[in-house]
């Protein structure tokens, strides 16, 4: 590929890295053709220089340094997955249940409005009685990115720069974010992974089950029981020995734990606690002492294993952040941007009836797979319902806030100089205003940062009503 040889994005040494490089270039080419060439050819059908100019002057200077940094050091991406993402998810769950309590107990008008009152974000705006990603914020974000990374001569190319800004902001960020915020998008993914309702579990089909033992009497039955017990013990001992051997070998290769990875499992425990409702979901459920005791046991075991987990998890994650995983991520992005291939018809969103059917199928499938004891834990009042596991992601307006915080976290990881308090010096000679910084590593600190914003007065009034009625 001529373009690949003349303008490499990152050094490709192995076969997997070369394949990843080609896929990234192919995705960029498809995006340029789909979002620019389709309308630009109507104004200038004979002009073939715009796309090569955008690729040479805009995309390569922008993507090249970012991909090269990730190629040389994957630690920031590992920190994003280990620390930022679970913190954002836990905060989303806590804010959702607080907004849900306000709607249920205080009679608020709309769930998304109550959510936004507790977590106001500049990246979201209200459109048609719901909240979506703001195209203006995304355009300002991309403009800051361009001003930071482009040279003065490249930044001065107004036509190419404006085209790239609007395409990346509106056609990519806003369009992809809109799909990511839809509940039916998550329902489709989960149903593809778990199967449709009524599908037998993996390994539970009749053809995969071993034949039953024939009935025996007397000493023959005792011999069969002894043989079965012996085989089970040998299997358990073999698995334990293999696991301990692998653990010792891996720990010997792990570097010392970093201070920022101290108690690295705490954000994930916060996600699990908020999702399972161990603290009562903002007063909507009554947490039982048995649930708190069981969860406390999990936290104690995790705290005892913290010295091992703090070294093991970051090391394993950095080992798996390789070119093979990058190929899968690029393929996933291509399926999201072009579900029907290119060239192909644009994707059609499900109708409200189809979206409702997907939601019902998802809840039915989750109800089939979740054990009854876990149902009693998640919903102690009604053990036959698992709606509490699905509800936090069933509102598009609330999901838009989660997607917006994820966007900010990714920007803060890839471009930390863009979210600093002081305007950084840019290669284009213009001061770049900082965007919203990614949340810190603890859920409590995230709450404090949210409260420092200009929270709507409506939130305090609703909280007072909740306290009066609780």
TrEMBL record:
Residues 444-470 have a biased composition (Basic and acidic residues). It comes from Apiotrichum porosum. Residues 17-198 form the PXA domain. The lineage of its organism: Eukaryota, Fungi, Dikarya, Basidiomycota, Agaricomycotina. Residues 424-470 are annotated as: Disordered. This is PXA domain-containing protein.
